[in-house]
Design a protein that fits this description.
Helices cover 59% and strands 5% of the residues. By secondary structure, it is mainly α. A three-stranded antiparallel sheet has the order 1-3-2. A hairpin with a 2-residue loop joins strand 2 and strand 3. Helix 1 runs antiparallel to helix 2, helix 5 crosses helix 6 and helix 9 crosses helix 10. The longest helix has 24 residues. 12% of the residues are buried.
Length: 201
């Protein structure tokens, strides 16, 4: 949409520039009256553009994305986040079993444990060249020593193994203070309903 300033430019040019039917005449210097008209029109356009205030838009963007931070602060926050992730990973590795320990608990071979991990029937956490298995996925029930639907948990939970392990072992108000691991033994569909709500949010 044209602004008054751009309309004025168009009108002044149309009023002062004669239509030339000879292409050879195009590109020559403008006559003095025309040059003055163009100069005047450009001054009007510059005055009009200088009155446009971009600060409200800048403020709107800042409100949407939060305060602007400098490069040094961003790097500091990134380092702190990496340290936090490393600490949380170490916590989960501490509360986990080796492949040989799980094989002994389940009375199967270590190769079977590896196969169960690949099939997401067990959840593993890499520790160097070895795999560790978070303790929360095991139960004292000899008939069902591993939590059911682990593959579904991995598939539907909106996060990695460390985030899932932390979530499964912390008391949750959605389960009346029980952990999701405890709720899986009572009502697994309730756990998946809460996970789906997290994903939808």
């Amino acid at each position: 949409m044209s602004t008054p300033a751009t309309t004025e430019v168009r009108i002044q040019l149309c009023d002062h520039i004669p239509a030339s039917e000879n292409p050879a005449d195009r590109g020559r210097d403008l006559p003095e009256p025309v040059a003055e008209a163009v100069s005047s029109a450009l001054r009007h356009l510059a005055d009009a553009l200088s009155g446009i205030d971009t600060h409200p838009r800048d403020a709107e963007v800042q409100d949407s994305w939060g305060p602007v931070i400098d490069v040094e602060e961003a790097q500091t926050l990134e380092r702190e986040n990496l340290h936090l992730q490393a600490r949380q990973r170490r916590e989960q590795l501490t509360a986990s079993f080796s492949r040989a320990e799980v094989a002994e608990m389940l009375d199967v071979s270590t190769q079977t444990i590896s196969d169960m991990r690949v099939q997401n029937r067990l959840i593993g956490l890499r520790d160097g060249r070895e795999w560790r298995f978070p303790a929360w996925q095991f139960t004292p029930d000899d008939a069902e020593p591993v939590l059911p639907d682990l593959a579904r948990l991995v598939r539907e939970f909106p996060g990695g193994v460390v985030s899932l392990s932390r979530w499964m072992t912390r008391p949750n108000v959605d389960f009346d203070g029980r952990t999701p691991q405890q709720e899986m033994l009572r009502d697994r569909e309730h756990v998946f309903a809460v996970i789906n709500a997290l994903t939808a949010a």
